[in-house]
Amino acid sequence: AESQDPPYLKGLNAPQRDAVLTTEGPVLVLAGAGTGKTAALTARLAHLLWTRKAYPSEILSVTFTNKAAREMRERVGRLVGDAVEGMPWLGTFHAIGAKMLRRHAELVGLQSNFTILDTDDQMRLLKQLIVANDLDEKRWPARQLAGLIDGWKNKGLVPSDLDAGESELYANGRGQSLYAQYQDRLRAVNACDFGDLLLHMLTILKTHRDVLQQYQQRFRYVMVDEYQDTNSVQYLWLRLLAQERKNLCCVGDDDQSIYSWRGARVENILKFEKDFPGAKVIRLEQNYRSTPHILAAASGVIANNSGRLGKTLWTEHQDGEKVKVLGIWDGPEEARRVGEEIEGLQRGGLSVDRTAILVRAQHQTREFEDRFIAIGMPYRIVGGFRFYERAEIRDALAYLRVVSQPADDLAFERIVNVPKRGLGDKALAKVHQLARAGQLPLTVAAARILDTDELTPQARRSLGNLVGDIARWRAMGDTLPHPELARIILDESGYTAMWQADRTAEAAGRLENLNELVRAMEEYESLTAFLEHVSLVMDNEAQAEEPKVTIMTIHAAKGLEFDTVFLAGWEEGLFPSQRALDEGGLASLEEERRLAYVAITRARRQAIILHAANRRIYGQWTSSLPSRFIAELPEAHTESESTMTGGASLWQANWSDRADPFADVGRGTGRGPGWQRAAGVDTRNPGGGFTSRTFTREQPRIVESRASAVSFGAKP
Ligand code: ATP
Ligand code: MG
C-alpha cells in the first residue's frame, strides 16, 4: 500500500500518519522537539486539500510567525501543486485576526479601512489621555499603562470585564477608566492596536451569533502549530471557532513554552481535553532532527523542571559528536572562538547557512557582529535589528555624534526632543529657519536662538538646558575616558531614565543594549575611532545571495533547525537571566530552562555551549559563573574544554566569596564537581558525582499532581 501513498504521506511514521489522517474530531499532538509536529501539520493540510475534504478557504491554519506561514504555504504547494494558491486563512493569529476584523469592523464601531497603530502612535495616544485625566505622567508612565492594557487584551478582557483589583494596578484604581477611554479614542480615530485584532474579533464572535455561525460553518478544519504558546484570547477565539465542527488539531510541546511573559498559557494544553472531550492525543517520540548526544543533553536539562507532561524521545541517528562545553576567558574571546570554529566548518566544506549562534539577550549579538565584520564573516540577524540599527542605540549614538561633531544636524534632530523636553515642532521650525538663514549647523543655531525672543519661555528653557549640556559634555570629553563620558551623557540627558521608567517587556532589553554600547566603546581608542567603526559597520550590508551565519535570540529560533548551533553566554545572570534570578520564583527559572531546552534542540549535528569566566561591565571586569544549566547536562553526553589556564583557582575563589546562586531554588550548594567540570577542571569521578539525576531526586515535585491528573496514555 505504501507505493500507492500520496506524496505527502511518504516517509511519515505511524503516529504522524495518524495525526494526518485523523481529520475528524479534536486532535492534540503533544510531542518533543524535532519529532515532526510541524511536518505532520503540513502533511495534514496537504491531505485535506488532496482529498478535497475542504477548499483552501475552508481551512484555518495558525502559525507562530509569518515566516512559518510562508514556509508551510511553500511546502504544501510542493506537495499538492497549486491548490494552495488561495489559502486565505493560513497565517499568524494577528494576520488572520486583522483579515477577519476588516470584514466586520462596523460591529465594533470601526470602518473596514481601520489603521493598525504602531507602538509610537499608541504611546502618544496614551500620553494625551494621561494628561487629559490630570495624572502625572512621571508617576504613572504611559508605557506602564500600555503594558497593562496589552496584558488585559491578551487575557481577552474588555474594559467592563476588569475587576477592582485589575483596575487598581494603575493610578489608584483608574486603570479601567483609562482603558475604556483609550478604546473610545481608538474607535474615534478608526484605529486599533495589535491586541485589538483578536480582542475585537472575540467580542464580535461572542455577541453576533450569525457571524460566529458563519465562521463555524466555513472553517471545516482548524489547525494550530506551537500551541503551547497561545495566550488566553487566542485560546478563547479558537475554541469558539472550532466548537461547532470540533475538527481542531493542535500541535505543541509543553517543554517549549517560552512566551509566558507575553501572556501565553501552557495550561491551554491541559484545557484542551476538558474543552474537547474525547480528544485524540497523539504522541510522537521519534526525533528526526538531532543526534542522540544532543537529545540526551536537552532531556537531561529539562528533566530538572517540575510539572512536565513528560515524554520520551529517541532517534535512529548516529551518535555524532558530544555536546561541547567551552569555557573561555571573556566576551571577545567568545566571539573570536566562535568565528574560528565557523571558519573551520567552512574549510570542512560546510555552508555557513546552516550555522546559527543563539543568544539569550539581544545585546549579546553585538560582540559577534563586531567580530564577524572584522573577519569578513557574512551574518544575518533574524527577528530583530542588527545591534547598531536598534532604535535605542541609534538614539544613543546620535547623542555621541552631536557631542563629537557639532555639525551633525541629523543627530541633533534625532535627540533634540528625546526624551521629551517640551520642544515642539514650532520651536524646532524656528531653529531650522535660523540655521538656514545663517548657514549654521543646528546646534549653533540652537545656541543663537536663545538670545532672541523667538521662543516661548518653556521652549527656551528646555533648549537652553540642552545646549548647555552639550557644551558641557564636549568639554568633559577632553578629560574623561569616552565610555565614561557616554554613560554621563546617557544619564544626564534623561535618556536612560526614560527607559528605566518604561514598564514594557522590551525596556529591560533596551537598557541592556545601552550598557552593551558603552562596553563596546571600551574597545576603541577614542570616541571618534568608535564612531568611525560604527559607520563602517552600518555600511557592511553583505550581499543578499551569499550564505550567512544566523545570529538570533533563542525566542526567535523557535521551530527552526541548524546543523551547528553555538549557544553563547551560558552564565549565571545572563542565562538564566538576572531578571529570572531576581524574581527568584521557580516559574521564571523553569521558563529559562525551557529556553535552554529549545536552544539545544535547534541543533541537528552539533551543539557548542560557551561560557566566559569574565564579562566587562562599565569597564569593570566581573567574573561570572557558568550557568546552572551546564551542570545539568548529563556528563556522558558532553565534552568540556577550557582555554583558561589556572582556571581552577579562579573558579574556587569565585565560589568562596560569592553568595550561593542556588539558595533561591533549594538545590544544594552548587560547589560540586559538576561545576568544576563545567569550568573545565577535571575532577570527574566514575560515580558521576553531581549529576542532574541527583538534583531531581532532592527537588520537591511541586506540581506532580497536575502532570499525573492528565492522562495522555501510558508513560513509558
Ligand atoms: P519543533 O518542536 O522544534 O517545532 P517539530 O516537532 O515541529 O520540532 P519538525 O520541524 O516538523 O519538528 O521536524 C524536524 C525535522 O525532522 C525536519 O527536518 C523534518 O523535515 C524532519 N522530519 C519530520 N518527520 C520526518 C519523518 N517522518 N522522516 C524523516 N524526517 C522527518
Ligand atoms: Mg515545529
From TrEMBL:
The organism's place on the tree of life at top rank: Bacteria
Positions annotated to bind ATP: A31, G32, A33, G34, T35, G36, K37, T38
CDD domains named in the record: DEXQc_UvrD, SF1_C_UvrD
Keywords attached to this entry: ATP-binding, DNA-binding, Helicase, Hydrolase, Isomerase, Nucleotide-binding
EC number(s) from the headed UniProt entry: 5.6.2.4
Residue span(s) of domain UvrD-like helicase C-terminal: 292-559
Primary enzyme class: isomerase
Reaction(s) this enzyme catalyzes, per UniProt: Couples ATP hydrolysis with the unwinding of duplex DNA by translocating in the 3'-5' direction; ATP + H2O = ADP + phosphate + H(+)
PROSITE patterns tied to this protein: UVRD_HELICASE_ATP_BIND, UVRD_HELICASE_CTER
Domain UvrD-like helicase ATP-binding, chain residue ranges per copy: 10-291
InterPro entries: DExx_box_DNA_helicase_dom_sf (IPR013986), DNA_helicase_UvrD-like_C (IPR014017), DNA_helicase_UvrD/REP (IPR000212), P-loop_NTPase (IPR027417), UvrD-like_ATP-bd (IPR014016)
Residue ranges of the region described as Disordered: 670-694
Family affiliation: Belongs to the helicase family. UvrD subfamily.
Protein name from the UniProt record: DNA 3'-5' helicase
Source taxonomy: Bacteria, Pseudomonadati, Pseudomonadota, Alphaproteobacteria, Sphingomonadales
